[in-house]
Inverse folding.
């Protein structure tokens, strides 16, 4: 028969990791560049005794960063376009200031 203490400890360790991940997400919610994380939880292989399967608790399968690649790509592209438009705007302002010079007016 499966050891109940070991099964319980496996579950506690798994959910301790889940709680740590949630705590990390809450702590870094306002940090620029931080991506939320989540863990995948799976079961340990069951043991078979007398033709009956007994569970052996859970375990962490992995830790994933959660982010949207489309949003990330869109942000990069739009930031690049903004920089390009700002430089064109500065050149247009300089040209306007040059043309608006009172010394250059024809009367």
């Amino acid at each position: 028969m499966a050891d109940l203490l070991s099964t319980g400890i496996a579950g506690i360790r798994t959910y301790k990791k889940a709680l740590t991940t949630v705590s990390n997400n809450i702590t870094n919610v306002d940090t620029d560049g931080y991506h939320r994380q989540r863990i995948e939880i799976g079961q340990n292989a069951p043991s078979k005794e007398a033709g009956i399967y007994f569970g052996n608790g859970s375990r962490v399968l992995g830790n994933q960063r959660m982010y949207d690649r489309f949003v990330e790509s869109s942000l990069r592209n739009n930031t690049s376009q903004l920089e390009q438009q700002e430089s064109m705007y500065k050149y247009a302002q300089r040209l306007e200031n040059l043309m608006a010079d009172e010394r250059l007016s024809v009367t």
